[in-house]
Design goal:
Elements: H1 7-12, H2 19-30, H3 36-48, H4 60-70, E1 88-89, H5 97-106, E2 112-122, E3 129-135, E4 138-139, H6 141-144, E5 151-160, H7 161-166, H8 168-177, H9 202-205, H10 207-210, H11 213-219, E6 229-237, E7 249-258, H12 261-278, E8 291-292, H13 296-327, E9 331-338, E10 341-347, E11 350-357, E12 359-361, E13 367-370, E14 378-383, E15 392-394, H14 403-409, H15 412-421, E16 425-427, H16 441-447, E17 452-465
Parallel strand pairs: 1-2, 16-17
Antiparallel strand pairs: 2-3, 3-11, 4-8, 5-7, 5-9, 6-7, 6-17, 10-11, 12-15, 13-14, 14-17
Helix pairs in contact: 2-4, 12-13
Length: about 475
C-alpha cells in the first residue's frame, strides 16, 4: 500500500509549482499522526479554503503561502495565453500526466509557435524531458536543460562479434583505463587532454564563461554521473547500409552518453537565474523563463550554449579516440547526435528556435542513436523529417520510475539477475539506473515509427557508469 506523498501527488491535487510544494512536503515529512489519506484530505481542504487554516498549528504556513499566491497581481507577470496551443504527442498512453501538464503550460507561452512530446517523455523542470518546443526569437535556458548538449556517440569497429567474446577481459581493461565518471571528477597534470574547443573565442568574450575554463579543461574527456555511460556492445546490421557503407553483419561497437559536465551545468544555472529575473512569468511557468534573442543576454546565452555543446562533443571525441588507439581497431562508421540543446530551424516557412530537451533531431536523413537501458537494445536510426514532430524523435527509452522510486522498489538481487539474464557485465551504477526503472524501448520505438527508420540494433554487453551516487544528467 502506498504511504508516501511526493511532489507529484501534491501537484495533482492542484497546488501550484514552486515553493508552495516545498512547504507542503515539509509539513508531510512530520505527518503529525495523520495517515496518507488523511494528509491528502487535509491538503485538499487547505487548498480549497486556506483562510480557515491561517491560525492552524500545522497548516498555517501553507495557508498563508496560498493566500499570498492568490493575491499576486497578474500585471506583475508576463501573461500566458488563456488556452494552450495544440501539440503533437507520440505514445501518449505511456506518458505520465505530469509531463503532459508541463507541456500544456509551455504551449501557453506567448512566444511558443509549436510543440511536440516524444514517447519517452516524463516530468522534468519547466519543459518535460522528451519535450520539443519551437519559439519565436526566444531562448529558454531550462527548455534546453541543465546538461547542455548532452549527446550520444557511436563508433562501429571492424571487429567481428566473436572477437569480443574471446577477448572480453581486454575490452574491460581498456574501458576502465580510458574512462572516468562522476560529478566533479576529472583529470589532472599529465593526464589532462587538449582540444581545439579550449581555444573557442567565447571563453575570452564572456567573463563568466572564462572563469569556467580551468574546470572545463580538467573534465575534458570525462563522463558525468546519473544515466551517463560508456559501453561496448554488438551492433547488428540486418542488411547492407549504402549510406554508411557497412555490409550486413554483426560488429563490435562503442557507445557513449554524456554531456558538457560542470561547465554546462554552471552555464545553465547562471542564465536560468538571469532569465527568471528578466522574464517574470506566473509561478506555474517560471522555469520556462526566456531571453529575447535580440538582447545581449540572449546572445550571451546562445554563444555559451553552443560552446557547451562543442565541449560535450569534444569529450566524446577524446573518449572514442583513446579507445580506438587502445584497441588498434579501424572505425567503419561514426554517428553522433545530441539533445538538451536549441537550434535555429525553419518550420513551416518560419525561422524558429527549436528546443529539444531530452529529444533528438530527426530531420529527413539525419542519423541518430536511441539507447534503451543497460540490458535493453539501442537503435541506430535515420530520421524521416516528420513536420508534426518538429523533425524530432525520442532520445532514449525514458524513465518510468523516478530515481527515488527505483532505489526503494528494486533490489540488488533483482538487478544482478536481469544483468545475468542478458549477459551484461556492469561496472559501477546504482539501483536508480536499473533497467526496470526505464520504459520498454520496443514500445517507445513502435510509437515513433513515423519519425525514424531503424538502421541497426545495438546490444549492450559491457557497461560502465558512475558508481559514486552522483546524479549529473
Amino acid at each position: 500500500m502506498k504511504t508516501q506523498i511526493n511532489g507529484t501527488d501534491i501537484l495533482e491535487l492542484g497546488f501550484p509549482e514552486g515553493k508552495i510544494i516545498g512547504i507542503a512536503l515539509k509539513i508531510n515529512s512530520k505527518r503529525n499522526g495523520f495517515t496518507r489519506d488523511e494528509m491528502i484530505a487535509n491538503f485538499k481542504n487547505v487548498l480549497e479554503t486556506p483562510e480557515n487554516y491561517i491560525d492552524d498549528k500545522i497548516f498555517s504556513k501553507l495557508a498563508v503561502a496560498l493566500i499570498e499566491k492568490s493575491n499576486e497581481k497578474p500585471e506583475d507577470f508576463i501573461a500566458l495565453n488563456q488556452n494552450p496551443n495544440a501539440y503533437s504527442a507520440y505514445g501518449l498512453d505511456h506518458i505520465e500526466d505530469g509531463a503532459r501538464k508541463q507541456m500544456e503550460v509551455a504551449m501557453k507561452l506567448p512566444v511558443t509557435v509549436a510543440g511536440a512530446l516524444m514517447p519517452d517523455a516524463h516530468q522534468g523542470y519547466g519543459l518535460p524531458i522528451g519535450g520539443v518546443l519551437a519559439t519565436k526569437n526566444s531562448i529558454i535556458p531550462y527548455g534546453v536543460g541543465v546538461d547542455i548538449g548532452c549527446r550520444m556517440a557511436l563508433s562501429v569497429y571492424d571487429i567481428p562479434e566473436a572477437f569480443y567474446f574471446e577477448n572480453e577481459a581486454k575490452f574491460k581493461r581498456e574501458l576502465i583505463a580510458n574512462s572516468i565518471f562522476g560529478a566533479g571528477h576529472g583529470f589532472h597534470g599529465q593526464y589532462k587532454s587538449d582540444h581545439a574547443v579550449l581555444e573557442n573565442d567565447t571563453f575570452n568574450m564572456n567573463p563568466f564563461v572564462k572563469n569556467l575554463k580551468d574546470k572545463a579543461w580538467s573534465q575534458l574527456g570525462s563522463s558525468g554521473g546519473g544515466n551517463h555511460f560508456v559501453e561496448f556492445g554488438i551492433m547488428e546490421f540486418a542488411q547492407d547500409d549504402a549510406v554508411l557503407k557497412i555490409p550486413k553483419g554483426k560488429y563490435v561497437a562503442l557507445l557513449t552518453h554524456s554531456g558538457s559536465r560542470g561547465m554546462g551545468a554552471t552555464i545553465a544555472g547562471h542564465y536560468t537565474k538571469i532569465a527568471k529575473d528578466e522574464c517574470k512569468l506566473p509561478e506555474v511557468a517560471k522555469n520556462l523563463a526566456y531571453l529575447d534573442m535580440n538582447s545581449q543576454l540572449g546572445q550571451e546565452y546562445w554563444m555559451a550554449m553552443n560552446l557547451a555543446g562543442d565541449y560535450a562533443s569534444a569529450c566524446h571525441e577524446i573518449i572514442h579516440n583513446k579507445m580506438e588507439r587502445a584497441l588498434g581497431a579501424t572505425i567503419l562508421a561514426k554517428v553522433e547526435n545530441h539533445h538538451n540543446f536549441a537550434w535555429k530551424e525553419i518550420w513551416k516557412g518560419e525561422e524558429v528556435i527549436v528546443h529539444r530537451k531530452g529529444a533528438t533531431p530527426a530531420g529527413k536523413g539525419v542519423m541518430g542513436i536511441i539507447p534503451g537501458s543497460m540490458t535493453a537494445p539501442g537503435f541506430l536510426v535515420r530520421g524521416k523529417g516528420e513536420e508534426n514532430a518538429i523533425n524530432s524523435a525520442s532520445h532514449g527509452a525514458g524513465r518510468q520510475m523516478s530515481r527515488t522510486q527505483a532505489i526503494k522498489n528494486i533490489t540488488k538481487t533483482e538487478m544482478k539477475s536481469i544483468l545475468q539474464d542478458h549477459g551484461v557485465t556492469l561496472i559501477g551504477a546504482g539501483l536508480d539506473e536499473a533497467p526496470m526503472a526505464y520504459k520498454d524501448i520496443n514500445q517507445v520505438m513502435e510509437a515513433q515509427q513515423d519519425l525514424v527508420d531503424v538502421v541497426a540494433k545495438f546490444t549492450p554487453k559491457l557497461v560502465r557508469m558512475a558508481d559514486d551516487g552522483s546524479r549529473e544528467d
